[in-house]
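Researcher: We plan to redesign the surface later, but first we want a full-length starting point. Tokens attached.
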């Protein structure tokens, strides 16, 4: 366990300087999302363009899911249902723009399980 930490750090140290600033790969950003009755709370609502990994945890008692829609309401990604106490990761590549997160189980979105989400150009990026 302890030996894994220096190894991971070594990878970061080697990888970052070798990636030219102009050609670096799109970001992958983790966003924790907590669910309870009836709230949907992303821990950050503004991320850089690229892959977003929504790490969903259901702190409630009911089953919930996570749906990502674009500004026109089109569904871009939909998770499986998350049971009480469960968690999952929903990964989706997002361009610049505004998005809507919601739980589509029953009428949970109407009850408050929805949130806005914004994807912005990375600092100094494309
Ligand atoms: Cu729900």
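Model: Full-length starting sequence:
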């Amino acid at each position: 366990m302890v030996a894994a930490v220096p190894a991971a750090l070594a990878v970061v140290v080697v990888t970052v300087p070798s990636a030219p600033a102009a050609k670096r790969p799109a970001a992958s950003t983790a966003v924790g999302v907590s669910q309870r009755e009836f709230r949907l709370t992303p821990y950050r609502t503004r991320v850089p363009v690229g892959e977003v990994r929504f790490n969903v945890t259901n702190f409630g008692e009911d089953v919930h899911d996570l749906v990502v829609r674009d500004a026109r309401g089109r569904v871009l990604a939909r998770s499986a249902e998350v049971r009480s106490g469960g968690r999952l990761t929903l990964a989706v590549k997002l361009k610049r723009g505004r998005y809507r997160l919601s739980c589509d189980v029953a009428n949970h979105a109407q009850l408050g399980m929805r949130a806005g989400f914004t994807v912005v150009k990375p600092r100094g990026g494309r």
